Amino acid sequence: MNKEFQQGTMGAVIQSSDTGQSYWTLVKRQFRKNRLAVWATRFLGILIFIAVFGDFIAGDKPIYCKIDGETYFPVLKQYAVDMGWSTWSSEFVRKSWREHNYEAVTFPLIPYGAGQLDLDNVLKSPFDNQKIESTRWRHWLGTDKIGRDVAAGMVRGTRVALVIGIVAMGIATFIGLIFGGVAGYFGDSRVRISWLELLFGLIGILLGVFYGFIVRNYALTEGSLVWELPKSIVIFGVCVLLCISLAKLIHLWRPSRSKFGLPLDILIMRLIEIMNSIPGLIFLLAILAVIDQPSIINVMVIIGLISWTGIARFVRAELLRVRSLDYIEAARSLGLGDFRIMIRHALPNALTPILISIAFGIAGAILVEAFISFLGVGIPPEEITWGKLLNISRNNINAWWLAVFPGIAIFLTVTIFNLIGEGLTDALNPKIKQ
Amino acid sequence: MLRYILKRILVFIPTLFAISLLAFWLSKVAPGDPVMSCNPIDEAGFEMTRALYQEMYEDMGLDKPLFYFNFTTASYPDTFYRVSGRYHQQALAKLIDQYGNWPLIQEYNNALESFTHSLEQLPETIDRNTRTALRRPTLLLFETYDDPKITNLLGQIQQKANNPKDSILYSLIADEALTLTDSYAAVKARPNQLRQYLPRLSWQGFDNQYHLWITNFLKGDFGKSCRGGRPVWNRIKTPLFWTIITSVLAILLIYFLAVPLGVFSAAKKDSVRDRFITTLLFVLYSLPTFWIATMLLVFFTTPEYGMDWFEGAGLGRLSSDAPFWSRFWETARHLFLPVLCLTYPSLAFVSRQMRGGMLEVLNQDFIRTAKAKGVHKQRVIWKHAFRNALFPLLTLFAAVFPAVVTGSVVIEVIFNIPGMGREVVSAIFAKDWPVLYTIVMLVAILTMIGNLVVDILYAVVDPRVRF
User: Fold this and answer.
1) Closest residue of B to A399, CA-based?
2) pLDDT of B158 strictly over 80
3) Distance between CA B150 and CA B452 in Å, rounded?
4) Distances from the Cα of A316 to the Cαs of A312, A337, B200, in angstroms?
5) Does A209 have pLDDT greater than 80?
């Protein structure tokens, strides 16, 4: 819904104006006038900081410690261990981090890991008497029913939420740019092909599917997808290109008489309509249900794959407008290739308004992530997210802190992105320029 | 106009076709063996024989080709779809992908089938443990395609079956076990790589699973649920009823509240009240429904915090023979919070749009003219401006409807209302694919019809729209 939210008010890109200021300076100045949006951007900076340095803010390992004269940086070392570059020596595996005899130690601000159990303090509210050594170890936001620290979970959740929101929207933007760009720039008549090229193109697609995917089925399903999928895509592309070049070769020898426009716009708009006929969340659930292994990556990819339509429509509308502008005509008359014009000259002009769509889209994706992890579909059980914390509160109705804090986090994050989207809308709206 | 409507309806058909393909494909790649997951006979402690499995497999129509045509490598046989069992079929397909020599793989498969049959026929006198020790690796072989694993399983079988000390067993199955091992060795020894690279496109006729599914679907027969084997329709008709009730209530509320709110804040633009309404609506829009719903449920329905003013989750416990009005009252009280949660996000959205639309119209010349000639302010707003700002509200319906449907998934789960949303989630957890994909199809069709109606209405109402 977010995407439609703004489409009405989105107008033309502000042309670099007579005042001699660059477009971006103007946009920035407009954006700064919106106090809320500026605050939202600052807040976003904090959120990103928490997401990036989450391990230094909340965790059961000290950031720095000194044992028997030796200095360690356990949080940093954990990264090395995760990458497989290093291993923990046995003393650290045997003992928990609290039990060492430190000469000096700095624990993170929240000295609990997100998944760490504190069985002494189960389902404690922030104001309850907690069984702790000192205030340093207090669970400031309470604990859940197996003694996990809520604050630590919230810090971990920040990372998951931002990563999912941003990566999913990145995927959606990529797909949306391609589809929207092609539909808007080429329309229904700019790509002119002959029947022979169409026929060979279709054959090329069939062969590409065959050699790229059907023949390589075993490699794709048994091997690692990261390597095999790009190979398959390359094979597919080569097959299609070869067949089309073959048709072009034949045309060199015997030119075609009739050419017609390939209705790319109609095809892509149909595809978008199909995607939009299934309400997003139900679509997402229906696909997630099919996937055996829950993983964050799957969730990101699927959210990206189903939410590109808004951006594509946006880009299409922008390019429909841009493509008839004089400078594009000039580029065409200079003999530049269509793809070059589209990517180098047309799309950059359409990009800024898309930022709005992306901002709202990230808000939507974060909301969707929170909801599916709330339901417990698609997110791996060991991952801690805001939605999951919220879900725990459903079974512990008297634990208000489990409902309030993660909810506020979701609300704030979503609002931040919505406010940035609003701010951008205003800043890019030429009507308010004066 | 008629032509436009006809054209829109014609476009409807390919879209529906594409969505049905998607739903069908998803239901086919969904995890789990459809026979085993839909017929949970394991609980009865009854061992399923191959023959029984095959019978059920055919009962469910799974022995038919998937689709009208098939696009594979030339090393696959024409009638590959007849191989029964999802994982068995998968394993054989992967063997073909590896070795490409179907005749030999078929021989290996036949040897495996007949060996299993012999195992099932073993007399009772043979030790139960021995039988299980033979049976387990054999059944695993049906689903294995990885060479080291197969070799290992075959080794286990050989070790038991080819043991001359156990003379009865030896005389009964040793030969067959040997044939099995030999046939697998033959598959490995003579691979046929060339056929792997030849495409084959074959027509499989109308008697295929997709065709049957979609024709039955269009006739209103949605198949059988995997939970208890009831028809899907029986399972989803009550949920459908509740979802329609809540959605219609919510949509009505949205429009009844949003329109006056939007008009009011547009008329009083930049006043304190307008600022208040606008800010409030923006905050509402950003509040995640499932959080608000959870909070309402936590704080206002439990005595814990002394604010249990509303009824909790569910629809109440009055039996169906209670008087209609008391049942009605009970349900209404239970539906209050859920409908509220369904309403507020779209309410914020629609009234914002209404305000924007009104502002745009109010800035136009004819409004200034109307004001200038002394028309009463109320009349200008309602008679002149409102009518013109109304069109966008219609198109908004296309956005509001899916939003409400999506919202109802969330709300129904949280408030435990037996609607479609809760049914979707419970179908996912129960791996009840027929129910899940029927609902997906129905919701898609409903959304498409909604869009269609909006488009047509728009063309009817706005004389500028002509196609």
Assistant:
1) B298
2) yes
3) 55
4) 6, 19, 38
5) yes
Question: What's the pLDDT score for residue A67?
Answer: 84
pLDDT tens-digit map of B287-342: 888 889 888 888 888 777 777 777 777 777 666 777 788 888 888 888 889 999 99
To the nearest whole Å, the CA of A169 is away from the closest chain B CA by 18
> Minimal Cα–Cα distance from B186 to chain A, Å?
21
Using one digit for the tens of pLDDT, what is the confidence trace for A216-230? 988 888 888 888 999
User: Hey, is the C-beta of B174 within 8 angstroms of any chain A C-beta?
Assistant: no
Closest by alpha carbon to B352, among A429, A352, A7? Answer: A7
CB–CB of A283 and B26 under 8 A? no
Among B281, B290, B299, which would you mutate to test the A interface (most chain A Cβ atoms within 10 Å of its Cβ)? B290
What is the pLDDT averaged over residues B170-183? 87
- Among chain B residues, the shortest Cα distance to A7 is held by B353
Average pLDDT, chain B: 85
- Quote the minimal CA–CA distance from A88 to chain B in Å: 34
Q: Do A407 and B97 touch (CB under 8 A)?
A: no
Phi, psi (degrees; rounded to nearest 5) at A346: -85, -50
The CATH number that domain A1-58+112-190+266-434 falls under is 1.10.3720.10
Cα A225-A229-A230 angle, rounded to 5 deg: 130
By CA distance, what is A207's nearest residue in B? B199
Minimum Cα–Cα distance from A287: chain B residue: B26
The answer on pLDDT for A274 being more than 60 is: yes
Note whether A404 contacts B295, CB cutoff 8 Å: yes
ipTM of the modeled complex:
0.84
pLDDT in tens, B231-249: 899 988 888 888 888 988 9
User: Which residue in A404, A174, A198, A396 sits closest to A305, CA to CA?
Assistant: A174
Q: Per the structure block, which two tokens stand in for A215?
A: 């023949």
Domain with CATH 1.10.3720.10 in chain A: 1-58+112-190+266-434
Nearest Cα of chain A lies from the Cα of B371 at a distance, in angstroms, of 24
- Chain A residues whose CB is inside 8 A of the B356 CB are 8-9
Is A403–B294 a contact, with Cβ atoms under 8 angstroms apart? yes
Instruction: Judge whether A58 and A110 are in contact, CB under 8 Å.
Output: yes
Q: How far separated are the first and last CA of chain A, in Å rounded?
A: 30
